[in-house]
Amino acid sequence: MPTRDEVYDKICELLKPYNPKNRPIEMSSGIMTDLEVDSTAVFDIIMGLEDHYDISIPMEMVSDIKTVGELTTAIIQLTSA
Amino acid sequence: MSLFDKYAPLQARVDVMMKMGRDALGLQFDDIISTTRARIGNREILLAGTNNYLGLTFDEDCMKAAKDAVDNHGTGTTGSRIANGTYSEHIDLEKSLADHLGMPSCIVFTTGYQTNLSAISGLAGDKDVVFMDADAHACIIDGTRLTGASTIRFRHNNPEDLDKRLKRQGEIEGGNALVVIEGLYSMFGDVAPIDEFVEVTHNHGGYLFIDEAHSYGVFGPTGCGLAEEQGVLDKVDFISGTFSKSLASVGGFCASRHPEFEILRKVMRPYMFTASATPANICAALAAVEKVKQGEALRANLKARGQQLHKGLSEMGYDLCADASPVIAVRRPNEVVAAMEWNGLMENGVYVNLAVPPGTPQSSSLLRISLSAAHTEDDINIILKAFSDLKDNQGQLMSDMSAKLQG
User: Fold this and answer.
1) Which of B50, B65, B188, B193 is most deeply packed, by most CB within 10 A?
2) How far does B363 lie from chain A, in Å, by closest CA?
3) Interface check B176 vs A, CB under 8 A
4) Which of A31, A40, A55 to mutate to test the interface with B (most CBs of B within 10 A)?
């Protein structure tokens, strides 16, 4: 099972192409609000995380995830299931 | 704090676009002269973004059918299909489409959007899992939101990626997999490998649903769409389509090779709780289905015009999103440049669609062209000239854009 830091680093890596202004990525950062990642790009990032951790993150779960921290928690839960 | 404050970032974006000129997302046409020409003020505009693929909106037989329908059955049905809104023409159209597609069941809906909203939300139950192409249209996404089903996205036009995700999901206890793809994707104009999707889906015991909104009428020997073109029409579980493109009207349909599909008439909320399509809409579409069946010449011209435009734009060095088809999307660096150029094309008398995120794949900003069988070789040359002028005047356009942004 990956650590919280490892998941956070992976999310930062996948967010990088969608963060051209290099906004600081914190656990509390709103993915669509603070980082201004649009909904289409969010789902591209999700598919990348699904493949990396070999998990399924259904869209209905994604709609409840607002921050980088919430996404990290969801991945930890899904990988430990 | 106002109810509208949450839209402040969107309003700021709209304000920037409006500085570039006209409102591309709310354009008013003062007159529609023909399938390919409109008038705005005193200016005649060549229409190259109407999805009017077969050019049937001004077809004499389709227009007569609509006029006769008004004379015979009035202007509206004032009721839903499950109340007083099922007329003989609704049933005739369902039979005609079912016959054309070779399927035992077909249901007609009031709009194309409601078609996928209805069918997907009706087909997928709480224990089912929907697998949806990453570039799926908003009506497919919204359809999944109305269900209790889990929804998984797979990489666009990638049957191997679907296979991987179906394997990852494993056995669906008490439910089924519903795979949803499109035929011709409306933004980039790229085509799905339907034959491969049929194989992957059925290998996993799933059902395949194809939205052929942009491909019905356009592809296939008899115009049934891309599943027919690729020789797998009889293997597809559900085919949906719209009347507002090749069928030159408003409404939509979903057909199935499963006769049990009929029960969904008693389930689908966007079908049950809205008024049925007007007699004029239905009768125009019914006449258009006959034109589609015999539309080889229209499809041949449409294909030739697509190839002509694609070749011309490629030779100018434009970055095009897919191979030649009736939808040709020109990728631009960002939405402000795209908006500025869209206005430049309008000044030159050519209307295309301005398409921007999040309505586009890969967060792209596009000048999207959709062609019609009614376009002539000369029409395509006019479009090409307008795009050529854009290239030639790039310096002036960018300087105008900077001035407008600062203004």
Assistant:
1) B188
2) 7
3) no
4) A40
User: In the structure encoding, which two tokens stand for residue B371, read together?
Assistant: 């062609």
The reply to whether residue B165 touches residue A55, judged by beta carbons under 8 angstroms, is no
User: Are residue B47 and residue B186 in the same domain, yes or no?
Assistant: no
Which token pair is B242? 């719209």
Question: In this predicted model, what pLDDT tens digit does every residue of B50-93 receive, in sequence order?
Answer: 999 999 999 999 999 999 999 999 999 999 999 999 999 999 99
**pTM for the model:** 0.95
> What's the pLDDT tens digit per position in B241-281?
999 999 999 999 999 999 999 999 999 999 999 999 999 99
Q: Crossing angle, helix A4-15 and helix A39-53, to 10 degrees?
A: 130
Class of the CATH domain delimited by A4-19+28-80: mainly alpha
- Domain end position, chosen among B272, B293, B314: B293
Nearest CA in chain A to B135: A40
Residue B253 to residues B106, B117, B205, B247, B285, Cα–Cα distance (Å):
7, 11, 25, 11, 11
